[in-house]
Specification:
This protein is of the alpha+beta class. It contains 15 helices and 16 strands. Strands 1-5-6-11-10-9-7-8 form an eight-stranded mixed beta sheet. The chain has a five-stranded mixed beta sheet with strand order 13-12-14-15-16, with helices on both faces. Helix 12 links the parallel strand 12 and strand 13. Helix 1 packs antiparallel against helix 5. It starts with 18 loop residues before the first helix and ends in a 6-residue tail after the last helix.
Length: 435
């Protein structure tokens, strides 16, 4: 027997019992984005490789080791997008959206990186990205944080995440700091691990973000970037923290919070959790004004964030209050030739009258007993029963499957009214949409 084909390592399926949680999160994301006036943009999954080389940098792990890159039939080098910021900015420049305009945009979809798969980190992962353009004021940095704070509250996980903030200053300020940092770490070369020694002359700020326990003491005594910031950068950062203080949003200033890409400036932030082990960063963002020029646009302002959905869903699954949604509200049992036709007609009438009702029809025939077993297994609250006699009279029998109440005969119009009231009452009583 031939071996069955399995999914590619690091690219996983989301099965039917898992999708209600995804749909719940996606619905809330859309509602929160709309409440802040953000518009969705939909971007290609494949871009020219040059886009990522110019934005991320050729001497980065992402470009050198992690991208899925291939030549198409025209000989062009194409890449499955490893992140969304570059593609979003490319679209805005291509369609002249940044000419004297401001934009608040969001996107959602799969990204691809050839990393070592582990829980919370996959080779195909779903990412929410938010990008804003044309706004220099620190209020837009703060607005993104407020948006995320509201999203956590709506998702029921606010008490499971913490906000960390830092400022990277300008490129010029960071250059002076970098020289001091390199000089400091050169005095402690014997303490640095292999990754940190490699980064010392390419991206020394990333050493500050090391998770190696053996390096924590030397990193804790390294010079702090905040001491090298100019007045403009300091005032920008203080304005953000003042807004958060005014709105009672708790935060931690983490002077070791950095980014691996040089185009970031001033604000950087992360939402972290202690619930997911080593994969503790749920959302990361910051200001990246210089990237627009780097990709051929005129000097402008940009700030945004990205969030991996798999980590978000893993965090939501730690909540005891989250229960799987009912896949079926009502299961229809049909026995008899006339009943089969009448049942289909009534099912369509129910769907037209109550669009939110989840109705499943038994298709495979069988006795009442066998069909009731399927009805019970479906998880439905009610069985709608139609035999040939009911079909002739234009009636149905309605049987509760969960509360032990008796079966009743109703006209089809009465049944529509009953099921409409049932669904409205259940929706009103449920605080968490997944229950």
């Amino acid at each position: 027997m031939a071996n069955t084909i399995q999914a590619i390592r690091g690219m996983h399926d989301v099965l039917p019992e898992q999708t209600p949680l995804w749909q719940h999160a996606e619905t809330i994301i859309r509602e929160v984005m709309a409440s802040y006036g953000y518009s969705e943009i939909r971007l290609p999954i494949v871009e020219k490789t040059e886009l990522f080389k110019r934005s991320i940098g050729e001497v980065t792990d992402i470009v050198e080791k992690e991208m899925y890159t291939f030549d198409d039939r025209n000989g062009d080098s194409l890449t499955l997008r490893p992140e969304g910021t570059a593609g979003c900015l490319r679209a805005c420049l291509e369609h002249s959206l940044l000419n004297g305009q401001t934009h608040r945009l969001w996107y959602y979809g799969p990204m691809y990186r050839h990393e070592r798969p582990q829980k919370g980190r996959y080779r195909q992962f779903i990412q929410l990205g938010v990008e804003t353009y044309g706004m220099a004021a620190p209020d837009i940095d703060a607005e993104l944080i407020l948006l995320m704070d509201r999203l956590w509250k709506r998702l029921g996980i606010r008490d499971k995440v913490r906000l960390q903030l830092n400022s990277l200053g300008t490129i010029e300020e960071r250059k002076a700091y970098r020289e001091e940092l390199v000089a400091y770490f050169q005095q402690h070369l014997d303490t640095l691990d292999e990754d940190s020694q490699r980064r010392l002359h390419t991206n020394p700020l990333r050493i500050l973000d090391t998770k190696n326990p053996a390096m924590q003491e030397v990193v804790s005594k390294a010079p702090e970037l905040m001491a090298y910031l100019g007045e403009d950068s300091l005032q920008h950062f203080k304005a953000i923290t003042a807004t958060l203080d005014d709105l009672a949003i708790p935060y931690e200033i983490n002077t070791r919070l950095v980014r691996g890409l040089d185009y970031y400036s001033k604000t950087v932030f992360e939402w972290v959790t202690d619930e997911l082990g080593s994969q503790g960063t749920v959302c990361a963002g910051g200001r990246y004004d210089s990237l627009i020029e780097q990709l051929g646009g005129k000097p402008n302002f940009a700030v945004g964030f990205a969030m991996g959905m798999e980590r978000l869903l893993a965090l939501m699954e730690t909540l005891a209050s989250i229960q799987p949604a009912k896949p079926v509200d009502v299961y229809m049992v049909r026995v008899g030739t006339q009943a089969e036709r009448a049942g289909l007609r009534f099912a369509e009438a129910l769907r037209a009258a109550i669009p939110a009702l989840k109705l499943q029809i038994n298709i495979e025939g069988g006795s009442f007993k066998s069909q009731f077993k399927k009805a019970d297994k479906s998880g439905a609250d009610y069985a709608v029963i139609i035999g040939d006699d009911e079909a002739v009279r234009g009636e149905i029998s309605l049987k509760p499957l969960r509360d032990g109440q008796g079966q009743q005969s109703l006209s089809q119009q009465q049944a529509i009214g009953f099921l409409r009231d049932y669904l409205a009452a259940r929706q009103k009583a449920v605080v968490n949409p997944l229950n």
